[in-house]
Amino acid sequence: ARPVVAVVGRPNVGKSTLVNRVLGRREAVVQDTPGVTRDRVSYDAEWSGREFVLVDTGGWASDATGMAAQIAEQAEIAIQLADAVIFVVDATVGVTDEDEAVVQVLRRSRKPVLLVANKVDDPRREADAAAMWRLGLGEPYSVSALHGRGSGDMLDALLAKL
Length: 162
Ligand code: GDP
Ligand code: MG
Known about the structure:
Associates with the 50S ribosomal subunit. By secondary structure, this protein is α/β, with parallel strands linked by helices. It is built from 5 helices and 6 strands.
């Protein structure tokens, strides 16, 4: 069976944009307003001749209290169903409480995790991506899901975890 890769992270970090980048088409719904993606949407994906299922996640209410807990809960479900996880953070914002909540879930799951520092549209932002080492999830792969920068290296690293 094809391995399942869940894309998790708090709203607005660019998960759906990243999914579209990997698919090479615009299927996942990208929104400036967080909370639009339904809970989990699966897509057939391929890289270097290897097929896998990519699961975009979202669906939490952006105005709710206890948002970090909600995000962690959603991520937990997706992570349980996955063989590997792409954890997306926003390099332009830095680490938030919501990010930390997802990290806790990732650690407990013991699933292979690829850490992606998104929105590195410009090489001058590389230091912001490198700051994500402090999450303790290994090497942060810096990408610009919007422009495609770094996505090939990221996918090579993902395949190495499958
Ligand atoms: P999600 O909630 O995590 O699925 O995030 P989306 O994919 O819907 O993106 C949220 C916002 O961030 C949208 O306005 C995107 O255009 C923007 N965005 C996503 N990736 C990038 C990126 O690499 N660079 C920049 N500058 N903006 C991005
Ligand atoms: Mg989304």
